[in-house]
């Protein structure tokens, strides 16, 4: 049996890999990563340290494009409603490799969902057929993200720095297009240059499409309207507290769903 971990370079999938190697040994565990070209450099440091300690095979695949480049090619601004980047750069890319190289009868796909995300585990089952999927973090012993931070520190491996900055996940350098106002406000505070890079990419995409579309949405005034990263930054620069602090968005990049 081959145990394939959707290895995102974040904490959850790293813990899944750790448990599987402890249970099955490194020879039967494969780490499979999709490189979106925008992950934080410290994610790669962490993922490399974990893979080296585990001693199992680690394969990294890439489409070659960034999320916003995929958006321009598909004529959309990627966002929480149309996360075409995760579909193209992660799910379809990895699924194609798995279909070519793996036998469904001898392969289990492992996802990094925990005990609070049973709905995501359930939703992943159908799209992944005929492969079987499993989410070890949904089973005891239950752990939270703060637990995992300490677990890896106890192992002598410092978690990715995005968690220290307060990001709930470590996707796309803190700039996941499925993130909400709270995520992008945090990115602006802790890494303004990266925010400005995404702002520039969004403006290029809007100009290319010739449409008033954006990653974020504005709900002030009782209507939902596009909120560009540029206008959001300008608003925060003048009024730092003027954002929806509860809007963290969603992340479902590798669950196999749309």
Folded structure, characterized:
It is a single chain. Helix 3 (67-73) packs parallel to helix 9. The radius of gyration is 19 Å and the shape is globular. The protein is built from 10 helices and 7 strands. It has 2 domains: 2-162, 3-Layer(aba) Sandwich (Rossmann fold), CATH 3.40.50.620; 171-238, no CATH class. The relative contact order is 0.16. It is of the alpha/beta class. Helices cover 45% and strands 12% of the residues.
What attributes does this structure have?
alpha/beta, globular, 12% strand, 5-stranded parallel beta sheet, Rossmann fold
Please provide a brief summary of the model:
The chain is α/β, with parallel strands linked by helices and 258 residues long. The chain is 45% helix and 12% strand.
């Amino acid at each position: 049996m081959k145990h394939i971990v959707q290895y995102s370079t974040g904490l959850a999938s790293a813990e899944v890999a750790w448990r599987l190697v402890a249970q099955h040994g490194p020879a039967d565990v494969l780490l499979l990563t999709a490189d979106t070209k925008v992950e934080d450099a410290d994610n790669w440091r962490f993922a490399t340290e974990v893979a080296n300690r585990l001693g199992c095979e680690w394969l990294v695949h890439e489409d070659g494009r960034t999320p916003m480049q995929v958006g321009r090619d598909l004529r959309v601004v990627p966002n929480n409603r149309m996360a075409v980047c995760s579909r193209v750069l992660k799910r379809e890319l990895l699924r194609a490799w798995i279909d070519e190289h793996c036998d469904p009868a001898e392969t289990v796909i492992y996802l990094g969902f925990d005990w609070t995300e049973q709905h995501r585990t359930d939703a992943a089952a159908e799209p992944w057929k005929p492969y079987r999927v499993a989410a070890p973090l949904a089973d005891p012993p239950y752990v939270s993200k703060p637990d995992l931070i300490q677990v890896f520190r106890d192992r002598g491996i410092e978690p990715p720095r995005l968690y220290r900055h307060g990001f709930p996940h470590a996707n796309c350098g803190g700039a996941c297009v499925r993130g909400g106002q709270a995520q992008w406000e945090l990115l602006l505070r802790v890494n303004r240059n990266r925010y400005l890079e995404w702002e520039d990419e969004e403006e290029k995409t809007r100009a290319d499409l010739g449409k008033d579309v954006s990653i974020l949405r504005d709900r002030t005034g009782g209507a939902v309207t596009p909120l560009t990263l540029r206008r959001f930054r300008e608003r925060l620069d003048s009024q730092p507290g003027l954002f929806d602090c509860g809007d963290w968005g969603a992340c479902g990049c590798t669950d196999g769903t749309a």
